[in-house]
Design brief:
about 180 residues; globular; 3 helices; 5 strands; alpha+beta
Amino acid sequence: MKTLLSALVMSCLLVANAYACQPLADKHWEDSPKRVKANFDAAQFVVVATVAEVRTLSISPDLNSNFKIKIERVKFRVDRSFKGKRQVGDTFEIDSGHSFCSSSIFAQHWWPFVPGKKTQSRRYPKQWLIYYTPIPEMVGSSAPLIPFEIEVSPLTRPVSQASYDSTILEKLKPKLFFRRHT
């Protein structure tokens, strides 16, 4: 009975994760100032950053568990900041692999398909546009939330795939205004 219950719970989690990770609707990918502004407004910080280090780690998602999952921890160095407290030269890390939605920076889909040319498996884009948008915490919940991850989405993309966003972000970047005290 315990095995059956465990299998049922696991299948519900898999279905929920699979449903949540369906491809995004076209409106989330369209080149429009409205989409870029919505991503900008929702983000804690928005940066162009270079990969400084990539490590694969085995971690326990639950402090009371011996179960381990493999994650990819990517350390980024900020090259340009559009929003937030991250400054040029600052570093931050993103762990991917906690959910079925995450994507490795080594994934083949980051590279254009060229017929007859084989891509190298350990290559990855060096520079990324990141709208760092953590999942809000649920008050009163003891369930661990999935952290922000690298995904196939407009929130984490190689710079080579984000030229439209970069152009719009230049216009959205907060301007410094000086006030005279009279």
